[in-house]
Amino acid sequence: MTEQDDTRLVDSGADSEDTAVEAALRPRALDEFVGQERVREQLTLVLSAARQRGASADHVLLSGGPGLGKTTLSMIIAAEMGAPIRITSGPAIQHAGDLAAILSSLTEGEVLFLDEIHRMSRPAEEMLYMAMEDFRVDVVVGKGPGATAIPLELPPFTLVGATTRAGLLPPPLRDRFGFTGHLDFYEPAELERVLHRSAGLLGVEIEPAGAAEIAGRSRGTPRIANRLLRRVRDFAQVRADGFVTREVAARALEVFEVDAGGLDRLDRAVLHALLKLFDGGPVGLSTLAVAVGEERETVEEVAEPFLVRAGLLARTPRGRVATPAAWAHLGLNRR
Ligand SMILES: Nc1ncnc2c1ncn2[C@@H]1O[C@H](COP(=O)(O)OP(=O)(O)OP(=O)(O)O)[C@@H](O)[C@H]1O
Ligand SMILES: [Mg+2]
Protein backbone atom coordinates (compact mmCIF):
# COMPACT_ATOMS: atom_id res chain seq x y z
CA MET A 1 0.00 0.00 0.00
CA THR A 2 1.17 3.49 -0.59
CA GLU A 3 1.65 5.68 2.41
CA GLN A 4 -1.16 8.15 2.42
CA ASP A 5 -2.99 10.13 4.99
CA ASP A 6 -6.35 8.63 5.46
CA THR A 7 -9.02 9.69 7.85
CA ARG A 8 -10.39 6.18 8.04
CA LEU A 9 -9.40 4.53 11.28
CA VAL A 10 -10.03 1.07 9.89
CA ASP A 11 -8.05 1.42 6.65
CA SER A 12 -5.48 -1.37 6.44
CA GLY A 13 -2.97 0.79 4.54
CA ALA A 14 -0.37 2.82 6.42
CA ASP A 15 -0.96 6.51 7.14
CA SER A 16 1.85 8.86 8.14
CA GLU A 17 1.35 8.30 11.86
CA ASP A 18 1.53 4.54 11.34
CA THR A 19 4.75 4.92 9.40
CA ALA A 20 6.23 6.94 12.23
CA VAL A 21 5.34 4.55 15.04
CA GLU A 22 5.43 1.19 13.27
CA ALA A 23 9.19 0.91 13.36
CA ALA A 24 9.03 0.89 17.14
CA LEU A 25 6.31 -1.75 17.24
CA ARG A 26 7.82 -4.19 14.75
CA PRO A 27 8.82 -7.55 16.16
CA ARG A 28 12.52 -8.10 15.49
CA ALA A 29 12.76 -11.89 15.67
CA LEU A 30 10.72 -14.77 14.33
CA ASP A 31 9.63 -15.91 17.78
CA GLU A 32 8.32 -12.43 18.59
CA PHE A 33 6.22 -12.45 15.42
CA VAL A 34 2.68 -13.31 16.49
CA GLY A 35 0.52 -15.87 14.68
CA GLN A 36 0.97 -17.11 11.09
CA GLU A 37 2.20 -20.41 12.56
CA ARG A 38 2.63 -22.17 9.24
CA VAL A 39 4.63 -19.42 7.53
CA ARG A 40 6.71 -18.99 10.65
CA GLU A 41 7.57 -22.68 10.83
CA GLN A 42 8.38 -22.84 7.14
CA LEU A 43 10.58 -19.76 7.32
CA THR A 44 12.33 -21.06 10.42
CA LEU A 45 13.30 -24.18 8.47
CA VAL A 46 14.38 -22.32 5.35
CA LEU A 47 16.51 -19.87 7.33
CA SER A 48 18.09 -22.36 9.74
CA ALA A 49 19.01 -24.67 6.90
CA ALA A 50 20.65 -21.82 5.00
CA ARG A 51 22.51 -20.74 8.13
CA GLN A 52 23.77 -24.29 8.69
CA ARG A 53 25.05 -24.43 5.15
CA GLY A 54 26.66 -21.05 5.58
CA ALA A 55 24.81 -19.90 2.47
CA SER A 56 22.41 -17.07 1.81
CA ALA A 57 18.74 -18.06 2.00
CA ASP A 58 16.67 -18.84 -1.04
CA HIS A 59 14.54 -15.99 -2.44
CA VAL A 60 11.31 -15.47 -0.50
CA LEU A 61 8.00 -14.10 -1.73
CA LEU A 62 5.58 -12.75 0.87
CA SER A 63 2.00 -12.21 -0.17
CA GLY A 64 -0.97 -10.93 1.80
CA GLY A 65 -3.12 -7.88 2.40
CA PRO A 66 -1.90 -4.52 3.73
CA GLY A 67 -0.85 -4.41 7.36
CA LEU A 68 -0.50 -8.17 7.86
CA GLY A 69 3.26 -8.15 8.43
CA LYS A 70 5.12 -8.44 5.11
CA THR A 71 7.60 -5.62 5.74
CA THR A 72 8.01 -6.80 9.32
CA LEU A 73 8.85 -10.34 8.18
CA SER A 74 11.33 -9.14 5.59
CA MET A 75 13.27 -7.32 8.28
CA ILE A 76 13.10 -10.38 10.51
CA ILE A 77 14.53 -12.51 7.70
CA ALA A 78 17.54 -10.20 7.45
CA ALA A 79 17.96 -10.11 11.22
CA GLU A 80 17.75 -13.91 11.51
CA MET A 81 20.37 -14.27 8.79
CA GLY A 82 22.54 -11.64 10.44
CA ALA A 83 22.54 -9.86 7.10
CA PRO A 84 22.12 -6.21 6.15
CA ILE A 85 18.91 -5.29 4.34
CA ARG A 86 18.39 -2.99 1.37
CA ILE A 87 14.88 -1.68 0.92
CA THR A 88 13.28 -0.61 -2.32
CA SER A 89 9.97 -1.01 -4.11
CA GLY A 90 8.53 -1.83 -7.51
CA PRO A 91 7.33 1.72 -8.23
CA ALA A 92 10.78 3.10 -7.35
CA ILE A 93 12.35 1.01 -10.08
CA GLN A 94 11.31 2.62 -13.33
CA HIS A 95 14.21 1.57 -15.52
CA ALA A 96 16.26 -1.58 -15.67
CA GLY A 97 19.24 0.66 -14.97
CA ASP A 98 17.81 1.56 -11.55
CA LEU A 99 17.71 -2.10 -10.68
CA ALA A 100 21.18 -2.76 -12.10
CA ALA A 101 22.57 -0.03 -9.86
CA ILE A 102 21.02 -1.59 -6.78
CA LEU A 103 21.95 -5.16 -7.66
CA SER A 104 25.54 -4.35 -8.49
CA SER A 105 26.07 -2.68 -5.14
CA LEU A 106 24.77 -5.58 -3.04
CA THR A 107 27.20 -7.25 -0.69
CA GLU A 108 27.43 -10.99 -0.16
CA GLY A 109 24.44 -12.42 1.71
CA GLU A 110 22.59 -9.10 1.74
CA VAL A 111 18.79 -9.15 1.77
CA LEU A 112 17.14 -7.08 -0.93
CA PHE A 113 13.58 -6.22 0.05
CA LEU A 114 11.48 -5.38 -2.98
CA ASP A 115 8.11 -4.11 -1.79
CA GLU A 116 5.12 -4.00 -4.16
CA ILE A 117 7.06 -6.21 -6.52
CA HIS A 118 4.00 -6.50 -8.79
CA ARG A 119 4.44 -2.83 -9.75
CA MET A 120 7.90 -3.18 -11.23
CA SER A 121 8.43 -2.30 -14.89
CA ARG A 122 8.76 -5.07 -17.50
CA PRO A 123 12.42 -4.48 -18.45
CA ALA A 124 13.42 -4.41 -14.78
CA GLU A 125 11.50 -7.61 -14.24
CA GLU A 126 13.44 -9.37 -16.94
CA MET A 127 16.72 -8.25 -15.48
CA LEU A 128 15.57 -9.55 -12.13
CA TYR A 129 14.91 -13.04 -13.56
CA MET A 130 18.54 -13.45 -14.46
CA ALA A 131 19.80 -11.91 -11.26
CA MET A 132 17.67 -14.25 -9.16
CA GLU A 133 18.63 -17.37 -11.07
CA ASP A 134 22.22 -16.88 -12.10
CA PHE A 135 23.35 -14.00 -9.86
CA ARG A 136 24.29 -12.10 -12.95
CA VAL A 137 23.05 -9.05 -14.83
CA ASP A 138 23.74 -7.82 -18.31
CA VAL A 139 24.40 -4.12 -18.23
CA VAL A 140 23.68 -2.61 -21.63
CA VAL A 141 26.10 0.10 -22.64
CA GLY A 142 25.33 2.41 -25.56
CA LYS A 143 22.29 2.61 -27.78
CA GLY A 144 21.13 1.19 -31.10
CA PRO A 145 23.18 -1.31 -33.16
CA GLY A 146 26.37 -0.43 -31.31
CA ALA A 147 24.94 -1.31 -27.91
CA THR A 148 26.78 -4.03 -26.06
CA ALA A 149 25.79 -6.06 -23.04
CA ILE A 150 28.43 -6.35 -20.38
CA PRO A 151 27.81 -9.28 -18.06
CA LEU A 152 28.29 -8.50 -14.41
CA GLU A 153 28.62 -11.14 -11.69
CA LEU A 154 26.62 -10.53 -8.51
CA PRO A 155 27.39 -11.84 -5.06
CA PRO A 156 24.82 -14.32 -3.74
CA PHE A 157 21.95 -12.38 -2.16
CA THR A 158 18.42 -13.09 -0.93
CA LEU A 159 15.55 -11.36 -2.64
CA VAL A 160 12.49 -10.86 -0.45
CA GLY A 161 9.56 -9.73 -2.56
CA ALA A 162 6.32 -8.49 -1.04
CA THR A 163 2.99 -8.14 -2.78
CA THR A 164 -0.62 -7.56 -1.87
CA ARG A 165 -1.53 -8.95 -5.30
CA ALA A 166 0.23 -12.27 -5.83
CA GLY A 167 -2.13 -12.98 -8.71
CA LEU A 168 -0.62 -10.10 -10.70
CA LEU A 169 2.88 -11.56 -10.68
CA PRO A 170 3.95 -13.12 -13.96
CA PRO A 171 4.49 -16.87 -13.47
CA PRO A 172 8.19 -16.76 -14.49
CA LEU A 173 8.82 -14.34 -11.64
CA ARG A 174 6.76 -16.32 -9.14
CA ASP A 175 8.59 -19.51 -10.09
CA ARG A 176 11.97 -18.04 -9.26
CA PHE A 177 11.19 -17.76 -5.58
CA GLY A 178 12.29 -20.76 -3.53
CA PHE A 179 9.61 -20.15 -0.95
CA THR A 180 6.30 -18.30 -0.89
CA GLY A 181 4.71 -17.33 2.38
CA HIS A 182 1.09 -16.31 2.33
CA LEU A 183 -0.08 -14.16 5.24
CA ASP A 184 -3.69 -14.54 6.32
CA PHE A 185 -5.91 -12.38 8.47
CA TYR A 186 -5.28 -12.88 12.19
CA GLU A 187 -7.57 -14.50 14.72
CA PRO A 188 -8.84 -12.23 17.52
CA ALA A 189 -6.74 -14.15 20.08
CA GLU A 190 -3.61 -13.45 18.02
CA LEU A 191 -4.48 -9.76 17.78
CA GLU A 192 -4.85 -9.70 21.55
CA ARG A 193 -1.25 -10.87 21.80
CA VAL A 194 -0.18 -8.18 19.32
CA LEU A 195 -2.03 -5.60 21.43
CA HIS A 196 -0.49 -6.67 24.73
CA ARG A 197 2.94 -6.56 23.16
CA SER A 198 2.36 -3.10 21.64
CA ALA A 199 0.81 -1.79 24.86
CA GLY A 200 3.93 -2.90 26.71
CA LEU A 201 6.15 -1.06 24.24
CA LEU A 202 4.00 2.08 24.32
CA GLY A 203 3.69 2.02 28.11
CA VAL A 204 -0.09 1.61 28.01
CA GLU A 205 -1.73 -0.30 30.83
CA ILE A 206 -4.37 -2.60 29.45
CA GLU A 207 -6.42 -5.43 30.94
CA PRO A 208 -7.06 -8.62 28.93
CA ALA A 209 -10.72 -7.72 28.37
CA GLY A 210 -9.66 -4.32 27.03
CA ALA A 211 -7.34 -5.96 24.53
CA ALA A 212 -10.10 -8.39 23.53
CA GLU A 213 -12.46 -5.49 22.91
CA ILE A 214 -9.98 -3.79 20.58
CA ALA A 215 -8.99 -7.05 18.86
CA GLY A 216 -12.60 -7.76 17.91
CA ARG A 217 -12.79 -4.44 16.08
CA SER A 218 -9.48 -4.72 14.24
CA ARG A 219 -10.58 -6.58 11.11
CA GLY A 220 -7.99 -9.31 11.52
CA THR A 221 -5.18 -6.82 10.85
CA PRO A 222 -2.30 -5.99 13.25
CA ARG A 223 -1.82 -2.51 11.77
CA ILE A 224 -5.45 -1.63 12.51
CA ALA A 225 -5.17 -3.15 16.00
CA ASN A 226 -2.14 -0.98 16.76
CA ARG A 227 -3.87 2.12 15.40
CA LEU A 228 -7.04 1.53 17.43
CA LEU A 229 -4.86 0.98 20.49
CA ARG A 230 -3.37 4.46 20.04
CA ARG A 231 -6.82 6.07 19.82
CA VAL A 232 -8.00 4.11 22.85
CA ARG A 233 -4.90 5.27 24.70
CA ASP A 234 -5.80 8.90 23.88
CA PHE A 235 -9.28 8.38 25.25
CA ALA A 236 -8.05 6.55 28.36
CA GLN A 237 -5.60 9.34 29.07
CA VAL A 238 -8.07 12.21 28.68
CA ARG A 239 -11.38 10.73 29.79
CA ALA A 240 -10.33 7.95 32.17
CA ASP A 241 -7.37 7.24 34.44
CA GLY A 242 -5.20 5.88 31.63
CA PHE A 243 -6.00 2.25 32.33
CA VAL A 244 -7.62 0.43 29.40
CA THR A 245 -10.51 -1.70 30.57
CA ARG A 246 -13.11 -3.29 28.32
CA GLU A 247 -15.46 -0.43 29.03
CA VAL A 248 -12.86 2.26 28.28
CA ALA A 249 -11.96 0.55 25.00
CA ALA A 250 -15.60 0.22 23.98
CA ARG A 251 -16.42 3.84 24.85
CA ALA A 252 -13.32 5.11 23.05
CA LEU A 253 -14.08 3.23 19.86
CA GLU A 254 -17.67 4.39 20.00
CA VAL A 255 -16.36 7.96 19.95
CA PHE A 256 -14.20 7.10 16.95
CA GLU A 257 -17.13 5.34 15.27
CA VAL A 258 -15.65 1.88 14.99
CA ASP A 259 -18.34 -0.56 16.01
CA ALA A 260 -18.11 -3.96 17.69
CA GLY A 261 -17.60 -5.71 14.35
CA GLY A 262 -14.92 -3.26 13.16
CA LEU A 263 -17.31 -1.39 10.83
CA ASP A 264 -16.85 2.35 10.54
CA ARG A 265 -19.29 5.07 9.56
CA LEU A 266 -19.05 4.40 5.83
CA ASP A 267 -19.51 0.64 6.20
CA ARG A 268 -22.54 1.18 8.36
CA ALA A 269 -24.01 3.76 6.01
CA VAL A 270 -23.77 1.33 3.11
CA LEU A 271 -25.33 -1.45 5.13
CA HIS A 272 -27.99 0.83 6.49
CA ALA A 273 -29.02 2.05 3.02
CA LEU A 274 -29.09 -1.50 1.71
CA LEU A 275 -31.39 -2.61 4.51
CA LYS A 276 -33.60 0.40 5.06
CA LEU A 277 -33.99 1.80 1.56
CA PHE A 278 -33.77 -1.36 -0.52
CA ASP A 279 -35.10 -3.90 1.92
CA GLY A 280 -31.86 -5.88 1.80
CA GLY A 281 -31.52 -5.82 -1.99
CA PRO A 282 -30.73 -6.89 -4.57
CA VAL A 283 -29.75 -3.39 -5.62
CA GLY A 284 -27.25 -2.18 -8.20
CA LEU A 285 -23.93 -0.75 -7.05
CA SER A 286 -24.55 2.67 -8.62
CA THR A 287 -27.91 3.05 -6.92
CA LEU A 288 -26.43 2.04 -3.59
CA ALA A 289 -23.60 4.54 -4.04
CA VAL A 290 -26.00 7.39 -4.80
CA ALA A 291 -28.04 6.46 -1.74
CA VAL A 292 -25.05 6.93 0.56
CA GLY A 293 -23.74 9.96 -1.33
CA GLU A 294 -20.46 8.33 -2.29
CA GLU A 295 -18.68 7.48 -5.51
CA ARG A 296 -19.32 4.05 -6.93
CA GLU A 297 -15.62 3.20 -6.57
CA THR A 298 -15.59 4.20 -2.92
CA VAL A 299 -18.41 1.84 -2.11
CA GLU A 300 -16.98 -0.94 -4.21
CA GLU A 301 -13.33 -0.69 -3.22
CA VAL A 302 -13.39 0.85 0.24
CA ALA A 303 -16.48 -0.47 1.96
CA GLU A 304 -17.50 -3.65 0.23
CA PRO A 305 -14.43 -5.89 0.55
CA PHE A 306 -14.69 -5.97 4.32
CA LEU A 307 -18.49 -6.22 4.34
CA VAL A 308 -18.18 -9.25 2.07
CA ARG A 309 -15.41 -10.77 4.16
CA ALA A 310 -17.45 -10.21 7.31
CA GLY A 311 -20.35 -12.08 5.73
CA LEU A 312 -22.66 -9.04 5.85
CA LEU A 313 -23.04 -8.36 2.14
CA ALA A 314 -23.00 -10.52 -0.97
CA ARG A 315 -22.32 -9.53 -4.55
CA THR A 316 -24.72 -11.33 -6.87
CA PRO A 317 -25.38 -11.04 -10.61
CA ARG A 318 -28.60 -9.17 -9.78
CA GLY A 319 -26.94 -6.71 -7.42
CA ARG A 320 -25.87 -6.30 -3.83
CA VAL A 321 -27.71 -8.34 -1.23
CA ALA A 322 -27.63 -8.15 2.55
CA THR A 323 -27.15 -11.39 4.47
CA PRO A 324 -29.26 -12.27 7.53
CA ALA A 325 -26.22 -11.36 9.65
CA ALA A 326 -26.44 -7.79 8.32
CA TRP A 327 -29.90 -7.29 9.81
CA ALA A 328 -28.71 -8.67 13.12
CA HIS A 329 -25.59 -6.49 13.04
CA LEU A 330 -27.57 -3.26 12.74
CA GLY A 331 -30.16 -4.52 15.21
CA LEU A 332 -32.97 -4.41 12.66
CA ASN A 333 -35.76 -6.88 12.15
CA ARG A 334 -36.00 -8.32 8.71
CA ARG A 335 -39.23 -7.22 7.13
N1 LIG B 1 2.68 -10.97 13.30
C1 LIG B 1 2.81 -9.77 13.87
N2 LIG B 1 3.08 -9.65 15.17
C2 LIG B 1 3.17 -8.44 15.74
N3 LIG B 1 3.00 -7.27 15.09
C3 LIG B 1 2.73 -7.33 13.79
C4 LIG B 1 2.62 -8.57 13.11
N4 LIG B 1 2.35 -8.32 11.81
C5 LIG B 1 2.28 -6.99 11.68
N5 LIG B 1 2.51 -6.39 12.87
C6 LIG B 1 2.47 -4.94 13.12
O1 LIG B 1 1.65 -4.33 12.14
C7 LIG B 1 2.31 -3.23 11.54
C8 LIG B 1 2.17 -3.35 10.05
O2 LIG B 1 2.91 -4.44 9.57
P1 LIG B 1 3.76 -4.37 8.20
O3 LIG B 1 4.24 -2.99 7.97
O4 LIG B 1 4.77 -5.45 8.26
O5 LIG B 1 2.61 -4.73 7.15
P2 LIG B 1 2.74 -4.94 5.59
O6 LIG B 1 2.18 -6.30 5.30
O7 LIG B 1 4.12 -4.67 5.14
O8 LIG B 1 1.72 -3.84 5.01
P3 LIG B 1 1.75 -3.04 3.59
O9 LIG B 1 1.14 -3.99 2.59
O10 LIG B 1 0.89 -1.85 3.83
O11 LIG B 1 3.16 -2.70 3.30
C9 LIG B 1 3.75 -3.26 12.02
O12 LIG B 1 4.03 -2.08 12.72
C10 LIG B 1 3.86 -4.37 13.02
O13 LIG B 1 4.18 -3.84 14.28
MG1 LIG C 1 4.89 -3.16 3.96
TrEMBL record:
It comes from the Bacteria. It is found in: Cytoplasm. It catalyses: ATP + H2O = ADP + phosphate + H(+). Its main location: cytoplasm. Transmembrane segments: none annotated. GO terms for cellular component: cytoplasm; Holliday junction resolvase complex. GO terms for molecular function: ATP binding; ATP hydrolysis activity; four-way junction DNA binding; four-way junction helicase activity. DNA binds at residues 296, 315, 320. Belongs to the RuvB family. The RuvA-RuvB-RuvC complex processes Holliday junction (HJ) DNA during genetic recombination and DNA repair, while the RuvA-RuvB complex plays an important role in the rescue of blocked DNA replication forks via replication fork reversal (RFR). RuvA specifically binds to HJ cruciform DNA, conferring on it an open structure. The RuvB hexamer acts as an ATP-dependent pump, pulling dsDNA into and through the RuvAB complex. RuvB forms 2 homohexamers on either side of HJ DNA bound by 1 or 2 RuvA tetramers; 4 subunits per hexamer contact DNA at a time. This is Holliday junction branch migration complex subunit RuvB.
